[in-house]
Amino acid sequence: MNEFSLSVSDWLQLSYLCLTALSITVTAWVALWVAQKVQRQIDTDKTLRNHFANEITEVRSETRKLIELLISEKTISAVEMKRKHYSLQLHINDLLRFLNQRYSIDKKNYLKAYRSTILALLEKDPNYIANYSSATPISLADSTKKKWFIRHFE
To answer: Which of 106, 95, 92, 102 shows the shortest CA–CA distance to 45?
Structure first.
């Protein structure tokens, strides 16, 4: 026999080593794929959470700006007041719908502080009622401002 020829046991040993190497390679590839997939999902979830947190912060900021505008001494038309409130409500409703779809958060109770009764207070204000049909800038009555402060700080 030739000194470089392999016996059957050598061939079996070589086959076993090749299969082991292939098995290790496949296992490593699957592990890397799973790790990459999991990391991508974690990154996606983190990005969504950050986005929704920023949206909630923006709604809070918009609400504060609207409240400050309404209780300040600045004047604004009644129609513009209602338009700003309606725009804020659309933003809140869209945000709550997405939160409900993604995280199953009950949209009726979440962000209740931001779904305040601003419009209800506005519609009872005598200056608002008297000047709604005109484009005349108005300032809310002191009684309405007091009611807002009471509700806001309860």
So the answer is: 102
Give residue 140's region: left, alpha or beta (phi > 0; psi -120 to 50): beta
Phi, psi of 119, rounded to the nearest 5 degrees: -65, -40
Q: Are 140 and 132 in contact (CB under 8 A)?
A: no
Distance of CA 12 to the CA centre of its chain: 60
pTM score: 0.65
Strand, coil or helix: 77:
strand
| Strands 76-77 and 137-138, sheet pairing | antiparallel
Written as six digits, the tokens of 100 are 């409900």
Round to whole Å and give the CA distance between 42 and 154: 39
Residue 128 pLDDT class (50, 70, 90 cuts): confident
| Residue 33 DSSP label | H
Sign of CA dihedral 65, 71, 73, 79: positive
Strand extents, DSSP E, 1-154: 76-77, 137-138
